[in-house]
Write a structure and sequence with these properties.
about 55 residues; mainly alpha; about 90% helix; about 0% strand; elongated
Length: about 55
């Protein structure tokens, strides 16, 4: 996994988790959903990079 892609994935996951928690804390379902989507995007990016790494070796 390239360092920049790994960083992007972790950043998206962290931002998404924070946004989701904030949305739930204030009762804003839209913000919570946006956070969950952003976290899922980070998870998908990480999975894609891990798959690419698996086929390299």
């Amino acid at each position: 996994m390239t360092a920049s892609e790994k960083g992007k994935a972790k950043t998206e996951q962290a931002k998404g988790a924070a946004k989701e928690a904030a949305g739930r804390a204030v009762g804003n379902d839209r913000l919570a959903a946006e956070g969950q989507a952003e976290k899922s995007t980070g998870d998908a990016r990480e999975a894609k990079e891990k798959t690419k790494d698996a086929f390299k070796h």
